[in-house]
TrEMBL record:
Native organism: Parthenolecanium corni
Keywords annotated in UniProt: Glycosyltransferase, Signal, Transferase
Official protein name in the record: Glycosyl transferase CAP10 domain-containing protein
Domain Glycosyl transferase CAP10: 129-382
Principal localisation: endoplasmic reticulum
Pfam family, any one: Glyco_transf_90
Signal peptide interval: 1-19
Keyword Acetylation: no
GO cellular component annotations of the record: endoplasmic reticulum lumen
InterPro entries recorded: CAP10, O-Glucosyltr/Glycosyltrsf_90
């Protein structure tokens, strides 16, 4: 009998590739032994990666705020020669126009998503001590300014990839504005309240009481999620992953030929040890919540970011999964952590502590303030009061 064992190490940070390891063997008796050897090779590589990542991570050196400041610098780098009135004018079509003049905040009348504007204005209204500024805030999910097209258009967006020159700001949903799903009809928001709720839930579901399997619920905003759903159908004891309906749902085709699963609250995620996060249209709002369950977060893909993503380190706070993962990749990495339960628990606790201690509303406000201060320094213009704008209170 000829057996072929392919073990592709897919985790993004590891360049090793066992796909070439094709082993032919005449003797059935050796089959298990060979599988064992390959498995232990995989096992050792993951262990090495975790140890190395842990050794590199020095929380005292890489202060959270210094990492956040670097993000601000990186985003404003395209504007280091100054932001002119013409540049701001060119940004107007891409978002909502705001001005701070004499410590009063003004906004254009129409707002595409009123509750998203409200979510952002909660923070902007706390910053009226700042000098005058003029900004264009994109309230859509998707970033607007492709670097390949023109990087000199200053547009604030909540999420982007490296292909975009948008300036990242903390999403409206830290206060209000969605996204809205059936369970959260007015949209998720009030991060301060949700934080408390989830930390309490995590206490009710300590690690040893959590279900020892992976979990995912979400809509099919993106086919990158399909393989996880298929794996769940093949190995329901290992992972429970299913699609829910979204507004675009028309038939079971949109949920991969299955009836849509009911939506699940963030709290319910805390019942499981391993939670999966994918990008949606842009970065997923789900991400930050998952950590507060004190479950182990598997984060798929590393392109889509929000302002705080860089403070989270792969293998220290979460498990990175490359976006073109296979079912087998997920199976192997889940089996690895089932075998190394203490390690899984440790990374879960690291992620939890980081989000608990540092992703607070006070730091969200701090980020907005620092971002605007740096932006104001680059303003090569005197904001002229625009009478078409309305006062925001
Ligand atoms: C801002 O203050 C300056 C100086 O006091 C004043 O001349 C100007 O009219 C004020 N502008 C607005 C829009 O209130």
């Amino acid at each position: 009998m000829k057996i072929q064992i392919h073990l592709a190490l897919i985790i993004s940070c590891i360049s090793l590739n066992y796909a070439e390891d094709i082993i032919s063997e005449e003797f059935d008796g050796l089959e298990n032994e060979i599988a064992e050897n390959i498995w232990s090779k995989f096992d050792n590589e993951i262990l090495k990666t975790i140890t190395a990542s842990k050794a590199l991570y020095d929380p005292s050196k890489s202060g959270i705020r210094s990492i956040l400041k670097k993000q601000i610098q990186a985003d404003l780098n395209s504007f280091k020669d100054g932001i002119t009135a013409t540049m701001v004018e060119s940004a107007v079509p891409y978002g909502t126009h705001y001005q701070l003049i004499n410590h009063t905040l003004y906004r254009q009348n129409n707002c595409l998503f009123p509750s998203r504007c409200e979510g952002n204005e909660h923070f902007l209204l706390k910053l009226t001590d700042l000098p005058d500024f003029e900004i264009i805030v994109n309230h859509r999910d998707y970033p607007q300014v492709s670097k390949h097209f023109n990087a000199k258009i200053p547009v604030f967006s909540f999420s982007k990839t490296d292909d975009y020159a948008d300036i990242m700001y903390p999403a409206w949903s830290f206060w209000c504005g969605g996204p809205a799903i059936k369970l959260y009809p007015t949209g998720i928001g009030r991060w301060d309240k949700l934080r408390k709720l989830l930390m309490k839930e995590a206490e009710h579901w300590p690690w040893e009481e959590k279900k020892n399997k992976g979990f995912f619920r979400g809509s099919r905003t993106n086919s990158e999620r399909d393989e996880l759903i298929y794996l769940s159908r093949e190995m329901p004891d290992l992972i429970d992953a299913a699609y829910t309906k979204n507004q675009a749902w028309k038939s079971v085709k949109d949920t991969l030929d299955a009836e849509p699963a009911p939506e699940v609250s963030f709290q319910e995620h805390c019942h499981y040890k391993y939670l999966f996060n994918f990008r949606g249209v842009a970065a997923s709002f789900r991400y930050k919540h998952l950590f507060l369950c004190k479950s182990l977060v598997f984060h798929v893909g590393d392109e889509w970011k929000e302002f705080f993503y860089d403070v989270l380190k792969p293998w220290v706070h979460y498990v990175p999964i490359k976006k073109d993962y296979t079912r087998k990749d997920i199976r192997d990495i889940l089996m690895f952590f089932k075998k190394h339960d203490t390690l899984a628990r440790e990374i879960a606790a690291n992620g939890y502590n980081l989000i608990k201690d540092h992703l607070k509303l006070s730091n969200v406000k701090w980020y907005w303030k620092n971002l605007l201060e740096e932006y104001i320094k680059l303003q090569n213009l005197t904001p002229e009061f625009n009478p078409a704008l309305m006062r925001v209170t």
